[in-house]
Amino acid sequence: MIARLRAQPRTARLLDALDGVAGAHLVGGAVRDVLLGGEAVDLDVVVEGDAAAAAHTAAQRLGGTVSEHERFGTATVEAGDLAFDVARARRERYPAPGSLPEVEPAPLEEDLRRRDFTVNALAVALGPPDPGTLRAAPRGVEDLDARRLRVLHDASFRDDPTRLLRLVRYATRLRFAPEARTEELARAAVSAGALGTVSGGRIGDEVRLLLREPEPNTALRLASELGLDRALHPSFAPDPEAAERARSLLPPDAREDLVILAAGCRGFDREALTRWLDELEFPAADRDRVVSAALGAAALGRRLAAANRPSEIAAVVSGLAPEAVALAAAVVPDAVASARRWLEELRHVSLEIDGGDVLAAGVPEGPDVGRALATALARKLDGEARGRDAELSAALAAIGRQ
Ligand code: ATP
To answer: Distance (Å, rounded) from C-alpha 149 to C-alpha 271?
Structure first.
């Protein structure tokens, strides 16, 4: 294990930072990914002992900083591009299903047993007494070899139903299969309405992570198989095919996560969708983009399909985000050509002249200026006004000035 950690620049620095710190362990996903032969991305350290002292030692050696989060008894160390969390080994108790756990210090074995899946319940010692030693919850290593996701106890999904979404995320990303009993427990938790016990914000956090996975549509398919889609909201119906078509049209500066979500939200009414996204604590701007893309898709698609000239296409999509245009084309096949033309070419077209040029030509301030510019842009889009002079002539002609 030490050789593997030395082989990656970030974990090598972590080893040096915690060299000689008794009880310090790298835990969770980083250990899993290193054992799978991959890169350790998200570094989490657990200390059987004084976590704050370990964090300060590490920060000092790295020339970095420590921020302590008193409420959780954890600390974050940051040094250049290296950042990691340090926590005291602890046990957790759930006072009620879905609530945040009460925590208290405990040996590492118990800290591992409170985790979501056995393949995440792995730790490797960084400091004395035995650096490099792998410690795992029962069946952790065996499940990793078999590429299997298994909860650590039968009440796991009931205690923390966000683990249902984590199950889907890991199954997709790691290509691990849920073990039979775990799948049974997941289905039972979904049918028992477990998600209803968790705050919308915590569910929203997991949904956002899921949507940003490399293969979100595969994850949503699995979520639907488990009945998680309806459990999130009765009107939520992921549509991976439409989402994939929309995604293939999206320009690089647009948001794939939002268009994928919107594809599954077409059956909501406006009020319910807005309320749901607020409950999940989506930022208002993202919420509005999803609502507009989802609920406007069919009508926009029909209008795009009927638009021929570039200026007509521009008028149809005026003020709409690329996600709305891509989703419209994904649900109305005849709209694809216009949508593609807008997304790839027309939306980047702008005038060389601006309002100042129109005023300088003697037009008084007022709505005419905007109208003149809008018409000039339409002419330019249609290839009828090339260059500054032609744009200005088109603008002035639009308001009867030439
Ligand atoms: P990745 O970053 O690859 O998604 P990770 O394992 O780093 O995976 P985090 O969300 O950073 O994921 O969590 C760190 C570790 O904390 C996990 O490996 C897991 O052991 C534990 N953990 C996180 N969330 C939960 C949870 N809801 N219930 C139990 N354990 C959890």
So the answer is: 38
Among 46, 116, 124, 159, which is best to mutate for testing ligand 1, by the most ligand atoms less than 8 A from CB? 116
* Ligand 1 centre distance from Cα of residue 205 (Å): 13
The finding on whether 159 has its CB within 6 A of some atom of ligand 1 is no
Residues 231, 161: contact at Cβ < 8 Å?
no
pTM for the model:
0.93
Question: Which pLDDT does position 73 carry in this prediction?
Answer: 76
Q: How far, in Å, CA of 31 to CA of 379, rounded?
A: 60
d(CA 46, CA 138): 18
Q: Is 287 in the pocket of ligand 1 (CB under 6 A)?
A: no
**274: number of Cβ within 10 Å:** 18
d(CA 265, CA 239): 9
The whole-angstrom distance between residue 162's C-alpha and the CA centroid of its chain comes to 15
Give Cβ neighbours of residue 120 (< 8 Å, ≥ 6 apart): 28, 29, 32, 170
Distance (angstroms) between ligand 1 centre and the Cα of 62 equals: 25
- Computed from CA positions of residues 258, 259, 264, 269, in that sequence, does the dihedral angle turn out positive or negative? positive
What would the pLDDT profile of 188-208 be if each residue is shown by its tens digit? 999 999 999 999 999 999 999
Q: Which residue spans within 22-149 are E strands per DSSP?
A: 24-27, 43-47, 65-69, 74-79, 82-88, 90-93, 102-105, 122-125, 134-136, 148-149
Beta bridge partners of 134: 124
Question: Is the preceding peptide bond at 240 cis, omega within 30 degrees of 0?
Answer: no
Residue nearest to atom 1 of ligand 1 (CA): 29
